[in-house]
Amino acid sequence: AKLTNLRMMENIHLAAEDEDDLYTGYNDFNPTFDSEVANLPSTYAMSDAGAARPMTAVRAAGYSSSLARGSTFDPLGQSKGPAPPLEAKNEDTPEEKIKILEKKVNDLIEESCMAQANGDLQLALEKAKEAGRKERALVRQREQTGTADHITLDLTYSVLFNLANQYANNDMNTEALNTYQVIVKNKMFNNAGRLKVNMANIYFKQKNYPKAIKFYRMALDQISNAHTEMRIKIMQNIGVAFIRMGQYSDAITSLEHIMSESPNIKTGFNLILCYYAIGDREKMKKSFQKLICVPLGIDEEDKYIPDDPHTNLVIEAIKNDQLHQMERERKALAEKYIMTSAKLIAPAIETSFAAGFDWCVDMVKSSQYVELANDLEINKAITYLRQKDFNQAVETLKMFEKKDSRVKSAAATNLSFLYFLEKDFDQADRYADLAMNADRYNPAALINKGNTVFVKQDYEKAAEFYKEALRNDSSCTEALYNLGLTHKRLGRLEEALDSFIKLHAILRNSAQVMYQLASLNIPYSNPHQAIEWLMQLISVTPTDPWVLAKLGELYDSEGDKSQAFQYYYESFRYFPSNISVIEWLGAYYIDTQFCEKAIQYFERATLIQPNQVVWQLMVASCYRRSGNYQKALETYKDIHRKFPDNAECLRFLVRLCTDMGLKEVQEYATKLKKVEKMKEIREQRVKSGRENSARGRREGSASSDSGQSSHGASAKGERLSVTLRSLPGSNEPYEASSQGEIDASYVDPLGPQIERPKTAAKKRTDEDEFEDEELGDDLLPE
């Protein structure tokens, strides 16, 4: 041991003060004591000059204070360069091909689902079919490689299920049913029996209700009681299918079970319908009570009222989030079903509908839907209106004058509207003011107020009310329409045109708006634009004779007789009693030398206005022009018997008898002279009266009154002399009538459906252009 220590001490020497490396000497050792290390691989040992040495803790690994020896600090071995690349996979192996094919099938299923979500059903079906083809190729490849045991059933199920869904979405019901059948019959698919619900839905869509019920029940048998919600939905479908088949008793069985297990609003409503169909009053009442007790599963609105300033931010964040929107939609749907149910059963559960409504109101007041009671009362008033019991409707609405502002405003709005329809404008104005005071932001109240001002011809003020209604509700079409009419009355045609163009953008198919746009283009001397609007109008109301007649009039003014004839003829087909249309068609055939065809139109005019001799004279003239002199003579004789003092008829009788060499010519000539002599006497009297009237005005104030009277008589006589070609006797009907006289004798039996053009068959007043406030949601809810 001492010898060994001495030998080791020989190899150790102290560092001198002038030596740089303090660790020199620690690397020196006697090889005789290191026989094992000498046999190690060189990779495990290092030396100062690169010779092999064991990795020891004698000095820091990888560090040397002597940089001149060429070594650097590189503990990670980065100086050796990048690692060699990984060995590339061989894609030609069967296993790799199978994996690639599986990924392709999954990608196609995903693409199919995304296409369906984007609404491209055809592309979704194509992708589903391609996924099916790829999946079958994958199965064949596994069978060829002997790995059939590794076939993925989940992938096969996904492919078939997606394909069946896409068939159903594209209304390929037979293919969808066949695909579902493949899945259901395969025992290797777990829970495949649930897909019988999908098959039942397809049968339901095909209206094959017995088979749908059969498959719903088969699906119900394969779903455990643990899945309560799914079982309830299937039973709902069974109940609806029975309702469609008219088997209300079977439907009631399913629906009653649901209401006892898991009640919901739709099921309760369907149950009421079934009991209403079979006429069971007591069950209707019980079902209604169950309906209003169904829990909605929503929180109270109080939680959206902040209790302290610290919760304001949270309340603002959740006040209109998706959850609150869903709660509002659910509550609105429940209120709709309850209102509909009440209106349905009210006349059936009691001896009178009023008593039935009262019972429903009492039930609703004691439920969670207290605010619906007032709406039911308003609907009660609506029902009175539909029964034409105006007084009861008014009395019911007047009960709301002492209610809260919202209900008071709605009731007063309806009362104002009702009095406006009754033309009691003072009461309409009073209740419009009451509605506005209760709720100044109620657009319907502002429109009614504007209407009452409109009928008083204070158009500027009416326009202000309509504008205020639009500021409160920019989508209020009634306010925009009436504002356009108001501008039209004030002569602001550009502003009126702008209002109706805006309204047309909202109501694309409104016939009234299109007509207003057409009528506003006529004063601008823009018949082509007016024709374009009327063409759009007849695409919406193709059988409106007034619009067709107006089109004919516009084409006639443009000189296009063939187009004018087409539209006038269409108008005559739909309404063959329009005198102006009949007159135009008769004149058209005379101008085109088809007098025989004109006869039928003038004969129809004779039937409509038998006391107007002009139409009968036109019939006789058509016979004469067509060369049928015998028929013309008979017609003139018939006219003479009805109108013996008609000079024009006598002239043609004299001419025809002379041409035909008949003996009656002298008799008719004598009568003609007598009629013409009486005409001269009347003309002299008219002339004398006119002269006396002028002389009386010059004589002074003493005879002014008599002069004015004489002037009135003379003016009337002058007007008659201008209108008539000859003045008959005092008991003789007019030969021809002015356009206004013909109009006044005719009334449209059907009544205009929209504001129509002014035609000769029916005069229209300014009131016809004004549209009252429509029966909005406050008065006639759906």
UniProtKB/TrEMBL annotation:
Residues 767-782 have a biased composition (Acidic residues). It is found in: Cell projection, Cilium, Flagellum; Cytoplasm, Cytoskeleton, Cilium basal body; Cytoplasm, Cytoskeleton, Microtubule organizing center, Centrosome, Centriole. TPR repeats lie at residues 193-226, 232-265, 443-476, 477-510, 545-578, 579-612. Signal peptide: none annotated. SMART domains: TPR. One of its GO terms (biological process) is intraciliary transport. SUPFAM superfamilies: HCP-like (SSF81901), TPR-like (SSF48452). Residues 71-93, 681-782 are annotated as: Disordered. GO terms for cellular component: centriole; centrosome; ciliary basal body; ciliary base; ciliary tip; cytosol; intraciliary transport particle B; motile cilium. It comes from the Eukaryota. InterPro entries: TPR-like_helical_dom_sf, TPR_rpt. Keywords: Cell projection, Cilium, Cilium biogenesis/degradation, Cytoplasm, Cytoskeleton, Flagellum, Repeat, TPR repeat. One of its GO terms (molecular function) is kinesin binding. PROSITE patterns: TPR. Residues 681-700, 755-766 have a biased composition (Basic and acidic residues). Residues 701-715 have a biased composition (Low complexity). Component of the IFT complex B, at least composed of IFT20, IFT22, IFT25, IFT27, IFT46, IFT52, TRAF3IP1/IFT54, IFT57, IFT74, IFT80, IFT81, and IFT88. Interacts with IFT20, IFT22, IFT25, IFT27, IFT52, TRAF3IP1, IFT74, IFT80 and IFT81. Interacts with IFT172. Interacts with IFT57. Interacts with IFT46. Interacts with IFT70B. Interacts with C2CD3. Interacts with ENTR1 (via N-terminus). Interacts with LRRC56. Interacts with DZIP1. Interacts with CCDC38. Interacts with CCDC146. Interacts with CFAP53. PANTHER family: INTRAFLAGELLAR TRANSPORT PROTEIN 88 HOMOLOG. Positively regulates primary cilium biogenesis. Also involved in autophagy since it is required for trafficking of ATG16L and the expansion of the autophagic compartment. This is Intraflagellar transport protein 88 homolog.
